[in-house]
Design goal:
Elements: H1 2-13, H2 18-41, H3 45-51, E1 52-53, E2 74-75, H4 81-94, H5 97-116, E3 129-134, E4 142-149, E5 152-159, E6 162-165, E7 169-173, H6 194-204, H7 209-215, E8 216-218, E9 241-242, H8 248-262, H9 267-280, E10 286-291, E11 299-305, E12 308-314, E13 327-332
Parallel strand pairs: 1-3, 8-10
Antiparallel strand pairs: 2-3, 3-4, 4-5, 5-6, 5-7, 7-13, 9-10, 10-11, 11-12, 12-13
Helix pairs in contact: 1-8, 2-4, 2-9, 6-8, 8-9
């Protein structure tokens, strides 16, 4: 816990100016553009037809974490060994080492679901993830890309050599904690999104009765997060406990939770997110909770501020019937996902 808190503090304090953010995110955009160009160069004309779309194609804002029977883009399973390598290099250009490792684990959990949910067929497949490009990868003008499948949805927009959007950003895990090893899946005991869940549990359990009375807004968890698969994030007045009513230690715990999500991304993108949260201040940040406050009991939390909406829900069973062992979590931008400014 102390290490996570220290990393959060360092992430904020070491990234203090917008100019530095622009320079750093420009390097990320350059790496993305290079990786995307190399991937596209390795495709046949037919494959390029599957993977390339116009930047203003409505499909750019079509996303979801469910195991959809049809998706846009080129499937990893249909890529050659070299193309898969290049695809993963693109993912690594956008994610931190830790974020990339989590993404790989999320995909590998499809092996657990295929075994645990007998008869699910091709929808449970670690290679059933799809890559799509919108517009031409270039350091001038806009372009974007998405990588999506069950429990993982990554969406980025690059404009004039700078990453301008990185949401919606969805991370899920089923089983959240692996109880039985399955060939192709993570090791027994793996908790893919451990800090994403546990830091929030620790925080809510640190509250005084007065704090809890504001933070816990419902005794039961919802079935899922809000606006699932919708192009625009939910718009409602923030609920819960204002971050200004947290103690200093609790504020650091909340910052550590936010940093955990930001640090899924390449370091410069994570630092830019954290710098924006710091600039906005705590006075517009709220923490809300629904449901139980211990593992194995359905629960949900929401943290929101001017530049972000973070939600996690863990209420569904895993394939073996273990309660609350199936996580959905999403990071959205109330100013506009997909780089689309909305009023």
């Amino acid at each position: 816990m102390k290490r996570v808190l220290l990393m959060a503090v360092l992430s904020i304090s070491s990234f203090s100016t917008a100019a530095a953010a622009e320079t750093s995110t420009a390097a990320v955009a350059e790496n993305m553009t290079k990786a995307a160009t190399q991937f596209l160069a390795a495709l046949s004309p037919g494959e390029r037809q599957k993977v390339e779309r116009a930047f203003d194609d409505p499909a750019r804002q079509d996303w979801h974490n469910i195991p959809k029977p049809t998706r846009k883009g080129l499937q990893v399973r249909d890529m050659s060994v070299e193309q898969r390598k290049l695809c993963h290099e693109l993912l690594q250009s956008a994610l931190s080492a830790d974020g990339y490792a989590k993404a790989v684990k999320i995909m590998s959990l499809e092996s657990n679901l295929k075994v645990g949910e007998k008869g699910t067929g091709p929808l449970r497949d670690p290679q059933r993830y799809f890559l799509t490009f919108f517009g031409k990868p270039d350091l001038k003008g806009p372009w974007g890309w998405s990588f999506e499948g069950h429990h993982l949805s990554l969406n980025f927009v690059i404009r004039d050599g700078r990453v301008v959007a990185d949401s919606p950003n969805f991370w899920g895990a089923n089983p959240a904690t692996v109880h039985t090893f399955v060939t192709g899946g993570p090791d027994e005991g793996t908790r893919t999104l451990a800090n994403e869940e546990q830091l929030a549990l620790d925080l809510v359990n640190s509250f005084t009765p007065a704090q809890r009375s504001k933070a816990v807004i419902a005794p039961k968890s919802p079935a899922d997060y809000r606006a699932a698969g919708q192009p625009a994030p939910p718009k409602r007045v923030a609920e819960g406990l204002p971050a200004t009513e947290l103690t200093g230690q609790q504020q650091q715990a909340l910052l550590a939770l936010l940093a955990t999500y930001c640090e899924h991304l390449a370091p410069a993108l994570a630092q830019e997110r954290l710098a924006e949260i710091k600039a906005d201040g705590w006075d517009q940040v709220y923490f809300a909770w629904k449901g139980g406050t211990k593992p194995g009991v359905g629960h949900y939390y929401r943290v929101e501020g001017p530049s972000f909406i973070l939600e996690l829900v863990n209420v569904q069973t895993d394939p073996a019937g273990n309660p609350a062992n199936h996580i959905h979590s999403v990071w959205r931008n109330p100013k506009g996902d997909f780089g689309v400014v909305r009023n």
